[in-house]
Amino acid sequence: MKRFAVAGMHLAYWGVYFLLLILFELLSWHSGHFTSRGIWQGIFTAPATIFTSLPAMVTFYVFYTVLFSRLLKRRRVILLGLTGIGVSIGASLFVFLGISHILFPWQKNGFSWDAGRAVLILSLIAFANGVLALVMRGFITFYRDIQLKEYLKRQNAELELALIKSQISPHFLFNTLNNIDVLIEKDAARASGYLNKLSDILRFMLYETKTDRIPVGEELRYIGKYIELQKIRTAHPEYIQFAIEGDGDQLMVEPLLFLPFIENAFKHAGKKEEGAIKIRFKLEREKIIFDCENRYDPKGPALPDANGGLGNGIIRRRLQLLYPDRHSLEINADREVYKATLILTNNAN
């Protein structure tokens, strides 16, 4: 909801509020309820109406800005009620004592029983306004959440499509198919196994990633198949170190979240010597720690920038949408080593 719409709701609310007070004042005078000069006459007569509305306004915005986010959203209902009552009474008492000598000069006996009842009435009105503030803030938050979810769905669909397109690399597919073709004559059974792995990866990318979240173990299985296919391109498969620590059965993750970094590692790796590429997953109770590093040739193709590039740009935007305040991504290129570290928190199913 846009700011001018929210401002319009506030103006409309207070417009109706003051209109009702004026109508109440007119009806009270017409019916003759104010037959004696006293504290009750001062509460609902102009200009006292403006001043006595201050507790309602103060309480309204304390509820709206503070109590909603700090107590209601955390479901601390009892503390919310007690705090709201205290704010209502405190605001009413402060305003009443502060301006009573100006508005009610005929009162010479200090804080009387009538004054106490007046503060009570003001407190009830203020508390009612506070409750209405929670209702208004709740409606605005609900409406904004709906808009945000729709926006996230559209953005996520676009990012998913761009990510999938970026990951189905023609270079990778052609090389893998050529290697399998060569391997068919030497070891048909092994070639068939690699072909099945390639088929599983393509099926996973195109069909099984339509769900919002998948078990991290499933994601890791397809990453393992991807790495196995990369190994057939070299006679030194030991240059890849792939390790998984911990049990991730209870962890969930958005699909295709780690593969861009792994693909970049293979794309920009230098000499295929032992330990040239290191991929590590550490799975904790509600945390996933992912490290991917590769040695590279400074004179070779330019590395993807830490903040730019299609893969990194998509991944950063996707993380901001799906893991707000629940992720950490660090990318460093130093001493011929390019390293990406991604930490995701609160991922238990």
Protein architecture, described:
The chain has 349 residues and is an alpha+beta fold. The protein has 2 domains: 3-150, no CATH class; 168-345, 2-Layer Sandwich (Heat Shock Protein 90). It contains 11 helices and 7 strands. The strands form 2 sheets. Strands 2-4-5-7-6 form a 5-stranded mixed sheet, covered by helices on one side. α8 packs across α9 (216-231). The two termini are 31 Å apart.
Strand content: 5-15%
Give me the CATH fold name of the largest domain. Heat Shock Protein 90
Q: Indicate the CATH class of the largest domain.
A: Alpha Beta
Domains counted in the coordinates: how many? 2
Question: Given the structure, what is the number of helices?
Answer: 11
Sheet with most strands: 5 strands, mixed
Radius of gyration: 33 Å
Based on the coordinates given, report the CATH architecture of the largest domain.
2-Layer Sandwich
The CATH homologous superfamily of the largest domain is termed: Histidine kinase-like ATPase, C-terminal domain
What's the pLDDT, averaged over the residues? 77
The rounded distance between the terminal residues' Cα atoms is 31 Å
Low-confidence stretches: 34-44, 306-310
